[in-house]
Amino acid sequence: MTRLLHALATTCSLAALLVSLPAAPAFAQPAAAELDAVVTAAFVPDQPGGAVLVVKDGKVLFRKAIGMASMELGVPLQPDTIFRLGSITKQFTAAAIMMLVEEGKVSLTDPVEKYVPGYPTQGHVITVEHLLTHTSGIQSYTDIPGWFPGRIRADMAVLDLVDAFKKEPMQFAPGTRYAYNNSAYVLLGAIIEKAAGTTYEQFLTTRIFTPLGMTRTFYGSNEPIIRGRAQGYTRDDGVVKNSQFLSMTQPYAAGSLVSTLDDLARWDAALYTDRVVKAESLARMWTPYLLKDGSSTRYGYGFQVGDMRGQQAIEHGGGIPGFSTYALRLPQEHVYVVVLCNSDNPRVAPGYLARRLAAMAIGKPFPERTAITVESSVLARYVGTYSNDARDVRRTVTVEGSRIYLQRGGRPKVEIKAASATEFFLENSLTFVRFDVSADGKDATLLYYGDGSDTPERSRRISDTAPSAAPATTGPAGQRQP
């Protein structure tokens, strides 16, 4: 009974906090049973699972947890369980930077060495904005060979972590390409500490968490006892295991926070006001950065900026040993969806689940696709290597008999199913691709609609042959997009 009263009180207080939001256009909301059916199918009660929240116009449409917080102790997940957020942390870091920008303590055009003296920019000008938008060109430390699984275990002070990657060669000139970068957000954390004169953890706690009533959101250090914190897991060939250890000093401003469904809803609600940053600052955070050639990165400051079912989508996922997460908002419809999983290899990808639920919440559910058979001679027209230079992405298409596969970089290849002669989809995923091939077969374009986006990522074929591919993935479809 105590737990029930606590849950009711939490839900009511959350609704009271959010109810002042202006209403979006009315439509028939999905029944809770429809949302529950989708969520229930994604998790197994006696396995690591997840907590899910769907909010519309300040009202909680759905709030539930399924699965185990501790497999060893037999403790189930609750809607108020605390999870590692992974890279959802980045939006808090970006907001902290914009708070300092508004106070005149930081400028987006400031060079990184203003706050990290002696940082070797290798002849380039690397600005705060470059760091925020993943366009700096510096080496992401988590991509340095050998960093996993060994070096990720070591406790490191902030500047020691910076020292570990700062001498790595630049990957490209700042502002010319987009490449997701954890080192950049480590540097942003150092900038916050220098400009604010306090630690990153203290700044977020005193300036964001406490004022917004986010009482169950913390810097996720391993040592403190945090009541209600879930254990993290992984799956290896279908076998559940404890996740690998990492020192939480390393994710830092790129991925160190822990939180709950309700606290993230409080965060989302506050962004509709000026309690965190002014509307002009938020608009800039939600505007895709343009590269020097004018192409869009589809990333602002700490948020991915895209579209879904005719709506602007502001979103970000997180992946960290033991946990996978996703937070998605549709500002026009005042919808917010959070999916927090205590497995880094869940049965269903959090982003896939979040997008399905958000589409249902606005009355525009994604269509179900049915696979058909396409002649091998047609599939052969699509074979080759495709490149999107602006986002530094290469994908290869291969055919084996009657099956066609898509692969990104060195990741495992993934089979895609034909919905038509030109459109193919990933099973248990919203991602689909279309091919546009010239009549003579010489020129081809791959249009990649990641996670059900309305706007495709375009890649041109640069070779009609494909390098040897890694084995087909055996993980959950949609967990790592090809």
TrEMBL record:
Residues 47-353 form the Beta-lactamase-related domain. Residues 450-482 are annotated as: Disordered. InterPro entries: AmpC-like, Beta-lactam-related, Beta-lactam/transpept-like. It comes from the Bacteria. The keyword Signal applies. It holds the Pfam family Beta-lactamase. Residues 465-482 have a biased composition (Low complexity). Keywords: Signal. Residues 1-28 form the signal peptide. PANTHER family: BETA-LACTAMASE-RELATED DOMAIN-CONTAINING PROTEIN (PTHR46825:SF9), D-ALANYL-D-ALANINE-CARBOXYPEPTIDASE/ENDOPEPTIDASE AMPH (PTHR46825). This is Penicillin-binding protein E. It comes from Luteitalea pratensis. The gene is pbpE_3.
